[in-house]
Amino acid sequence: MHLLVFSTVSSQEEGERIGQELVRARLAACVNVVPRITSIYEWKGELCRETECLLLIKSHRGRFQDLQEKIRQLHSYELPEVIGVEICEGSERYLAWIDEVMRTPG
Fold this sequence. Notes:
Layout: E1 2-9, H1 12-24, E2 30-43, E3 46-60, H2 64-74, E4 83-86, H3 92-103
Antiparallel strand pairs: 1-3, 1-4, 2-3
């Protein structure tokens, strides 16, 4: 099953570094780094507002646990966001490309 994984990071540089590592490790076929999103959340009893970058990570469900662990290892946050959503529809050729990249040895 194809998966779209969301994670936020503190900067473009951190997002690119994590994205490159995920693709190199074949835990992701592609990582988009979307700059300058505003995140509003509560953390340790305080209301926070931060400018972050959003990672859109294309992967497979079977790789989620390893992908999640790799993000935890590389991430600067104490509790990084790692949320996977199944891709139920998509371009057949694009999904086939994800499959090909994910099975190709690094």
